[in-house]
Specification:
The chain has 114 residues and is α+β, with helices and mostly antiparallel strands. It is built from four helices and five strands. The longest helix has 18 residues. It is globular and about 45 Å long.
């Protein structure tokens, strides 16, 4: 079983546990990947011709949101704790750098931690 994190009909992340996020969450038993669609309870595999850079962007976004959902990002910024802001910023920058690398290895993204 896995939890699908879905935004506007697109699977952003596939997680072992449900994470804190205001996005749609669906418990799913099967194979799913970031970029696949979710329509009326049905998985729609992503087109095979999805651009690699778009897939990397989606994977990086899902990874960022796993640790820093948008509401948490806003809370960190509003709290004004400079150490927390720097930590979050370095993590997001590392994920973005990974997504911009055409030779990026998905295992490297999983290793990026805040």
């Amino acid at each position: 079983m896995a939890w699908l994190e879905i935004d506007d009909g697109i699977i952003l992340g596939v997680h072992n546990e449900r994470c804190e996020s205001e996005l749609e969450w669906v418990e799913f038993d099967g194979e799913a990947n970031p970029g696949d669609g979710w329509v009326d309870g049905t998985l729609i595999p992503a087109r095979e011709d999805i651009a690699p850079e778009e897939l990397r962007r989606r994977q990086a976004r899902a990874h960022i949101l796993e640790y820093y959902p948008e509401w948490r990002q806003l809370n960190v910024l509003r709290a004004g704790d400079s150490e927390a802001i720097v930590t979050m910023g370095k993590f997001i920058d590392a994920c973005r750098n990974w997504s911009n690398d055409p030779a990026a290895d998905p295992a490297d993204l999983a290793a990026i931690q805040p």
